[in-house]
Write a structure and sequence with these properties.
41% strand, binds nickel (II) ion, 128 residues, mainly beta, 5% helix, seven-stranded antiparallel beta sheet
């Protein structure tokens, strides 16, 4: 017999809705995990700081708005429904003119500012 914890109906995760619940820009929130990876949503506007992640690639899926990712060799514009993966160790800076809503996929425990630190460093493992 299933106990009460298992009686909740399965629910798909509405990524745009989850992102809309976040109270501050540049504050990633975890919506799901897969093995050691986390799926995070975030609302961004303006420019982040240049940084890199020597230990991992970092994936960005755009939900709403347009994401610009500045890279050493130029920038890439990522539209809703599009994905871009920044390779490990590559310097990058995310930016958006007007607000953009994104999903990021990366291993648990990755610091959003890499080793740069500073005011934009977000707390990890906050679920929404
Ligand atoms: Ni990054």
């Amino acid at each position: 017999m299933p106990d009460s914890h298992h009686q909740q109906a399965p629910l798909a995760i509405d990524l745009k809705y989850k992102a809309s619940l976040i109270d501050q820009q540049w504050s990633p929130r975890v919506v799901a995990e897969m093995n050691d990876y986390q799926f995070k949503v975030v609302r961004i506007e303006g420019e982040f700081i240049w940084h890199s992640h020597p230990e991992t690639d970092e994936a960005f899926l755009v939900l709403e708005g347009v994401l610009r990712i500045d890279l050493p060799e130029g920038c890439v514009y990522v539209n809703p429904g599009e994905l871009y993966v920044v390779p490990r160790g590559v310097e990058h800076r995310t930016a958006a003119q007007g607000e953009a809503k994104l999903m990021m996929i990366e291993p648990r425990g990755i610091v959003n500012t890499g080793h740069e630190g500073g005011d934009l460093t977000a707390a990890n493992d906050i679920w929404i």
